[in-house]
Amino acid sequence: MATINDVARLAGVSISTVSYTLSGNRSIAESTRNRVVSAIQELGYRPNAGARMLAGTRTRIFALTAPVRPDTQAGVLMSFVLAVATAARKIDYDVLLLTADEASTGLERVTSSRLADGIIALDVSLDDERMPLLRALNIPATVIGVPADTSGLVCVDLDFEEAAHLAVGRLADLGHRSIGLLGMSRLTYDWGANYPLRFRDGFFAASDDRDIATAFVMPDGDMDSIRRGIDELFSAMPTMTALVMHAGESVQVTVLEILAARGISIPGQLSVISACAVFDTSAFSPPLDEIPLSAEDSGVRAVELTIRQITGDRTPHVDLLPPRYVERGSTGPAPVREP
């Protein structure tokens, strides 16, 4: 691997001249600068991170801030981490992962040391403590998620509100007039995670628009809690003919097992949709219609938006990705009730 000494030797200049050329801290004659640049290119010399920081050039590193909280679904979080890392590698960028204890201090350290060209934030709450810091830091940053206040931010995410409208609209068009929503744990909503709240609110708004009766439960991940949640839905709406699940994979699988044990057929007696899941429901029993949440799409777009900011366009905006519906046979016409 070429060193700064090799560059100086080939260019016929001192090491300090190479350093000044990289840092721009002193005026260097154009002819001298050209010799240094030619030597760098010929040798394939890559300055270390410190030199690149001094030079004001790119480090080709993204800082990815992804706090791990008590209610974090590790599989979901890691799917987004992997999506961002994969998209970054395709453009020759590396990813520096900042976890829970570094949510704010890590961002300040990365920015002050110029260690990263840009920041990508994951697992965002409505009143996320990182958002004011991202506004204050003079560094390109993209948020995967939509906080309550998006001013001064560049955000990207699935349009969860529209996904809820898509699910309700599908069921309403099939004649369903009472739809249950089985969501995530209460802790997730209480913490203020942006996406389940956006989906929940979109679900209620879409149901109101179509004059549909609703009930909502927030079970924990254990069997007893899930069973109680199903009981609560049917107790609140004895005529419930459809169910939308916005929950983790293990919870959804357990729901299907409980329904099967009770002899409730899908979609004959109950239509079911899996909403905004990063996992594949085609292997479920039965396979479920779904509105997928693509970590890959969000990761690719976040990297694109961060690069756009790095190259000069830092216009704040929210980029909502349109949802799509995948049919697998778990929804059907609302059953006709005996008078």
From TrEMBL:
Q: Which InterPro entries match?
A: HTH_LacI (IPR000843), LacI/GalR-like_sensor (IPR046335), Lambda_DNA-bd_dom_sf (IPR010982), Peripla_BP_I (IPR028082)
Is the keyword Aminoacyl-tRNA synthetase assigned to this protein? no
Alphabetized UniProt keyword annotations: DNA-binding, Transcription, Transcription regulation
Q: Quote the SMART domains the UniProt record gives.
A: HTH_LACI
A Gene Ontology molecular function term for this protein is: transcription cis-regulatory region binding
The UniProt record lists the HTH lacI-type domain at 2-56
Kindly name one Pfam family recorded for this protein: Peripla_BP_3
Isomerase is among the record's keywords: no
Domain of life the protein comes from: Bacteria
Task: Please identify the protein, giving its name as recorded.
Answer: LacI family transcriptional regulator
Species source reads Cryobacterium zongtaii
